[in-house]
Amino acid sequence: MTEDDGAAFWRREPKVALHLHLEGAAPPALSRALAARKGVEAAGLFDAGGGYAWAGFGGFLAAYDRVAALYRTAQDDAALAEAVLRACAAEGVIYAELFLSPDHAGPERWDEHLAAVSAGAEAAEDATGIVARFIPLCVRHLGPEAARRAATLAARAAHPRVVGFGMAGDERCFAAADFAPAFAIAREAGLGLTAHAGEFGGPDSVRAALDALGVARVGHGVRAVEDAALLDRLAAQGVMLEVCPGANIALGLYPDRAAHPLGALRAAGVRVSLSTDDPPFFHTDMTREYAAAAAACGWDRATMRAITADALAAAFCDDALKARLSARLA
Description:
Largest sheet: 8 strands, parallel
Helix content: 40-55%
Number of domains: 1
Oligomer: single chain
CATH superfamily: Metal-dependent hydrolases
């Protein structure tokens, strides 16, 4: 089954998304309309095809910040969350963990932001059945103090949809150990821990996230394939890698699906899940990720369902919800 032939087939398959940034998943049409309504200068933000325009990792981060800055009211946030989750549901996603950024939303309006995103998630669930939980995160290149502030906001939220804490941003900035105090705050609050690593930072970045931050999951983590000892450790400890092949290829880590290490990671016994990261920026969706992974790695439906089940097992939600979702997978 080719990627194109399998698209309709894989769209119907139930899926679990563990790595999805709220603002990074903003539909371009929604952002364009919002910019026009608010009179915000959007020159250079959109390409000729109506998508987001950017070049290189630094350019992507800058474009992401510009998109996030458009969503500044509770109404904006609710509409964004509902649109993102409805789009996920259309791709067969039954459960999604959304990364929320207090720094992008504005720490002073975090409570309002969280309530509004939750309202959008509830509307999407009522309409489609998709269930969402939230992972607030810190932005690495903003530094350790900003990370402590984000962790404190996440820990104090005591919101039923907040289940984890993570770190995104440029992993080449600062040492992982600099963020240990922030992750300690989140751990003390009982939140699941994840961090972006092993994308641009190499295998040592993954090892540092495990050692210094104590994460149970690693965002991306694909560069671990370059270190056999690290692969053995990930497999032995059952660490889940939140793999986003389309994003890795769009950002130039690998030239194509055939060169991507997704298959090698799983062959080494490492648990992997499939996600989209920032789908409209990288011209992907969950159907494409499933179809492309199956075609590139030669995986059948049983293997893909096992990957989805592994993702659900690694989700940060409670066991009762996992049981309910597991029935839907079956």
